[in-house]
Amino acid sequence: MTSMSVPASATPDAALQREQRPGPNFLTAPFHARTWREHGYLWLVLLLAPFAFAYVVLVPSLAAGLVVTVVGLGLVGALVLAARGWGGMYRGLARTLLDQEVAEPHRFVRPRGFWRTIWAMLGDLDGWRALLFMLVAFPVAIAGWVSSITFLAWAVAGLTYWEWYQFLPAQQAADGTWHRGAQFGTDWYADTPGRLVVVAAGGLVLLLVWPWVQHLFALLFRLLTQALLGPSRTSERVAELRASRAASVEDADARLRRIERDLHDGTQARLVAVAMQLGEARDQLSSGDATLAAELLSTAHTSTKEALTELREIARGIHPPALDSGLSVALETLAARSAMPVQLRVDPAVAGGAPLTPAMESIAYYTLAELLTNAAKHSAAHVVRVDVDRDADLLRLRVHDDGDGGAVVVPADGTGLRTGLAGLVERVHAVDGTFDLSSPVGGPTVVTVTLPAGPQR
To answer: Are both 297 and 192 inside the same structural domain?
Structure first.
């Protein structure tokens, strides 16, 4: 059932390349590039943290002082919306230094009307989530930087202690001896060869532990970035509904244009020809040539029947008459008219349950019609099995063919044109349905479509 194909990418995705980078082991971690990228990230977020925190404090401060004025509401809304820019900067840092790919939130869509725009800006969820990230990042950045620098500084100090300890000021122990080493506890000075080795070993341990302590804070920032700076579930759902609505409008508009074109180029042209033939037949009758008039009337009669057939086909495209007898009868009629053998099984609950809405029946009918057409044209299958089941809230269509497989869903291109399976996917998603395709090369192809069968609100 292959009618489309997706071109393979010429080069590997950058994110996949980063995921395939080998990570450090315990001994090489202090010298690994990831460790130093994370160290640089902690430095940058620490430098940004005071400014980001001040920005977060500015928003409620201005809101408290200017909320009574329209200008104040607009200013606060603009600050909330501008927090998306901060989120984009932090996402860029995470992508560059932490190898963390986070999708960008869906763009802000300005509604119509002044007050609706103000309230949409004030209620921009992605802006508030970015502000929350900036607020949480302030203490986390300080704690992460202090921990990292502390471990690294003590590690370097321990490893180089043997070189610089002799420049420390002399200290007198309780027994009257003088020492130039660092004091640990009571009268324990690190100034003998054995103790110098102990301090160096301690520095080495701290150096080996340092990357992993730092990595914990980097991991925390990764989680925060993923949770707060990516698209929220609400915004993703709104974007999906907006795209589905736009696709439905475009599909309806395309269907109307197709009907208009069929009427104009087909039926209207035939009716014009019939009118001309009838006029010529009238003229022939007036001149007494009954034979030619009869031929013209016969031709006009044939053209009229063909025009009626075309009108029935157009009307069937708008609303199949078979649906007037129920979805089960309509699907049986569709299977009987298919260009290839169809084994149809319809659950009795489809006809015996609560009636489906007309819109859902039409979507189920046209979805199966398109799948059967695709199978007949592209699959080289011998038979198609169709199972239609229903439970309390779902209508499930399962179409299985024994063809060559390899079917794929190609998304809309830059022109917005949607054909084949992509159009079906958008039509099904527009009503909160699901479309699952399994079509390995060599077959079989199995398409499972679920549609809501409960009451539509």
So the answer is: no
